[in-house]
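Page 42, continued from yesterday. The earlier attempt failed because a stray header line got pasted into the input along with the sequence. Redoing it now with the clean sequence only.
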Amino acid sequence: GCLTSMDLTFNEDVQRGTGNISLTCRTNLLSCTDVVVPMEAPVFSGGSTLFENRVLHVTFSSPLVDASHFQVSVSRGAVQDLHGNPFELDEDCEPWFNEEWGASPKPCLPAYMVITPS
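This time it went through. Structure tokens are written below.
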């Protein structure tokens, strides 16, 4: 694995809230492991987070699995603007959609994806 960090850039300054950022495997399901990043503290069991104005930096203590697509979800309130307004990013698939078909991003668009190099 070689992807050890991820930056999320927002359109305004943001701060730590309460909740999680989740990276859910959508491909390479036999090797890939979902990652949960709790936002309550700067350090978590899988790495650390740092807020720098409009950017949230996430550093992983172990690289993410190569050749994998991760769907990024932010639970409501995990990230907030400086006035305490919550941010949320989550896109649920249609009930008939089988997640094992994850190589195709549809019908779960719009979704934010992180793709690790092969």
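Notes: The chain has a mean pLDDT of 84.
Reminder to self: strip header lines before submitting.
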